[in-house]
Amino acid sequence: MGFIDPSALTEAEPKPGWHGRFFHSEHMTFAYYEIDGGAALHAHSHPNEEVWHIIDGEAELTLGEETRCVRAGAAVVIPAGTKHMVGVKKGCRAIVVDYPVRHEVGGLKI
Question: Please, what are the averages of pLDDT over each run of 10 residues along the chain (110 residues)?
Fold first, then answer.
């Protein structure tokens, strides 16, 4: 796998309001999300380390017991097995990277 144009990938909606385009490298899964205002993810954890990079807009992320508003240009590292949740009030764009590779997101096989 070499050069990838995420805008050319098929869009999937693993949860209502979460519009994603996904691809894998040998060890990681990349999700390019456009998230609608009002969309949220319940508190959950998974065995993957996850890094969120907010590209545009803002999201409210809870990591363990701490909640912060994360704005464009900021990133959040979520250790494997750590409970987290996400809420988006006005919509945002984010790149989310998981290690190791994830083959399912929100019940959707990717």
Answer: 93 97 97 98 96 98 97 98 97 98 92
Separation of alpha carbons 10 and 67, rounded Å:
32
Q: Mention every residue, 6+ apart, whose C-beta is less than 8 A from residue 33.
A: 18, 19, 20, 93, 94, 95, 96
Q: Please report, as a single letter, which amino acid is at residue 92.
A: C
Q: Which CATH architecture has domain 34-109?
A: Sandwich (2.60)
Residue in the block written with tokens 């959040």: 76
What's the whole-model pTM score? 0.95
Who contacts 90 (Cβ-Cβ below 8 Å, separation ≥6)? 37, 57, 58
Q: Nearest 5°: phi and psi at 103?
A: -105, 0
